[in-house]
User: What shape does this take?
Amino acid sequence: MEMTGRLLAAHVLFLCSYRDPPRTDNPQTRSKPMSFPRRFNEDSSPAPSADDAIRSTDTDAAVSRLSAVQRGYLPDPYAALFVRRAARRPPLINIGTYVRTSAVDALVRQFLARVGEGQGQVVSLGAGSDTRFWRLSEEEETRKKIRKYVEVDFPEVTARKAALIRRHRALSDPLGPETTLAQGGTALHSPVYILQPLDLRFPTTSSTSTTSSPAPSHPSPPPSSRPLPTPSPPLPSSSNNPGPSTSTSPPHPLSASLLPHLSPALPTLFIAECLLVYMPPSAAAALVSWFAQTFEHSAGVVYEMCGVDDSFGRVMVQNLKARNIALPGALSYPRVSSQPGRFTDAGFARAGALDLETVRTQVVSSEERARTAKLEMLDEVEELELLLRHYAISWATKGERLEGMGLEVGGG
Assistant: This one.
């Protein structure tokens, strides 16, 4: 199994950024040592910058999402609009994309179910080519709950997305006629949907060059959702200045970027899929703390890899380095059981986490498991289980209006 894990990690870099492995169907090459495709290591082209490499993972994820849609795992009529060249992914990548998307969607719907009409605020951080806003807008019950849906990413990413939205009526019509471009075409504003450019790596300290961080000293919370024995009291805030309470700390850039569009008095959910692991630990902690401190009723959903310190995870990290992708935050909360700590350390009252394999086998309904099992032949069952155990969905809430939000084990 260890050798299988090493091979899998080398071929499947990770669910956030799958790339097709080198072909091994030539009998003359099957016995040769594993190597990267030419596009990973050829010397004739300059290596991408670290930021370019991170941004490229969104393209990979978009292609994987479209592959899952085309195979029948997910309904998403918008996925093809964000992909220039479709490619069929292996079954284990399609299944992983399906489980990830279904779990995050379920948590977003739980949040919206707990807010009043026109009161829900959703902030998708590092949103890239995500289509969740348009999918939610198709359903009247969820659409009427959303007051604001804000997406944040690098300016290069938001500029491309803004252009695509303007180009395709399927994307622009749900935004309404009062849609405008701003900030040189990198921002797009409508009455409900906001696309905002921002580099989220703040504060910028010496930790930006750190490739790893020791695990926090707090005891690891259990993986299931449960309130802390003594929840941290809410920090004082005001609608005019809801930023961090310490006067010596500079304001987080999210305050200037998001608060013109959001109300601190309304329930707010942030989503971070394959984002915090790329950030210096101090920047990730500051981001999560900002939401806990700014909004009276707040929730968060985080999806990222875990277990990068075992044999599978180490090979995965090595292959990401070959693409000039570093994971500065990978060891801050390395286990599924430690993932809720990123929330409780920041002031959230309740938190929980599950790995994707547990979600697949114990949260997804038996009817859905039976349906998806018929879509493709899966021979690599052990490989799928190993891969999915290296990705976690975690969530947290603060404020009585959002109590009870979380994935339930045993629901299938």
Q: What stands out?
A: The two ends are 28 Å apart (CA to CA). The first helix runs from residue 2 to 11. Confidence is low (pLDDT under 50) at residues 22-45, 204-247. The first strand starts at residue 120 and ends at 125.
